[in-house]
Amino acid sequence: MLIKSLAVTAGILWTGAAWSSIDMGSLSQSHVDGELIITFSEGVSHEEKLAILEASGASLIKEFKSSNAALVKVEGTGQENTLEAAGMFARTNAIARIGLNRIFKINARPSDPSFSRQYQYDLIGAEEAWDITTGSKDIVVGVIDTGIVYNHPDLEENIWRNPGETGLDDDGNDKSTNGIDDDGNGYVDDFRGWDFAEDDNDPMDDHGHGTHCAGSIGAVSNNGEGIAGLNWNVTLVPLRFITARGEGTEADAIEAIEYATMMGFDMTSNSWGGDAEGDGDGTDPLYEAIKKAGEAGQLFIAAAGNDGRDTDRRPTFPASYDLDTIISVASSDSRDRMSGFSNYGASTVDLLAPGSNVYSTIKRGWFGNYYGNMSGTSMAAPIVAGAAALIKSEFPKETPLELKARILDGAEPVSAGKGKLTTEGRLNVFRSLTL
């Protein structure tokens, strides 16, 4: 839900201008009570921001690196109080945009574990692709999700180790546990990723969703364990912003994207989203974070959503943002039919990938072992992320736009995609590798 300031008076003082009306229909979007994401106008100093917040009884929680936005805490609780605070902020032209701290949800559905195992590889030409490349540890994929079970027997070898937080410091202490920000990136002991929901260095998956996504991208292969990932060799970074409830805030998502950008990861896999409005301009901090990531050379693979609707008419974000470095992924089944739950859009969704009853790594306990089936566009997106990583290993100098073009141009035409996707096709990694 977005509220835009109508103030036009010069300066940053509170004005008499009326604040904009609120689209009450958008208030159904889940959000964090008592928090707002505010985008300040260009030229407003840090001191002026603090003064504006103090004048309204609000406090600064964090500022974002990729835009002139900040997460703030307002006084009191309840939706009415939060909107009242938004109205106060909208009376100054020092603020360009005011939004709720939206809650995004994962795009997955648990499935019966007895269904087919890893049928997706036959469909997408994986075995033929593996004759060309099985991946590279040099390719780094940020999994922005519920975290990863980083000690999973089929994932552990492919989990990232931050080189700046690995080894011994000058005092002979292990950098990963010395309580010092050795690499100076603002995150202490982030040796295997970060938990943005809890603001600590333990991105362990207590849900299972992120671990399932990670396995599709890069479960270790030829190790006598469980399954094969699309990449036998790859580097996976757990970036946890979604909790065990399957929900995470917009502010934490932005910070996770900014971290991945700062650390120079090649791409991110994003199996989450929401129905809320997105401005898609310089005042929208989530859009800006993804835009800056793309400008830094990072591909953003996003799940199209599980509402079974046309996102050309009713978009879902972040997948529907009009950014060249986003690949929006719909879900198909083992017979190349579009999954009944999958969103689609002739101009907003790019291609299909297997997402129904996908067998992958999970958090132990769901089905009594470390493997199970799940369904959703959440499962389709990491298969495309895995394909992107595999292709990147063969063509390491390709830009995000070149990599995206190779993936989309290699899509195999299927009837389910006709008139519903930009490519009208389903992922075929072998075709993409051999273009």
TrEMBL record:
Signal peptide: none annotated. Keywords: Hydrolase, Protease, Serine protease. Transmembrane segments: none annotated. Residues 137-412 form the Peptidase S8/S53 domain. GO terms for molecular function: serine-type endopeptidase activity. Residues 28-77 form the Fervidolysin-like N-terminal prodomain domain. Pfam families: Fervidolysin_NPro-like, Peptidase_S8. The keyword Cell membrane does not apply. Belongs to the peptidase S8 family. This is Subtilase family protein. It comes from Pseudobacteriovorax antillogorgiicola.
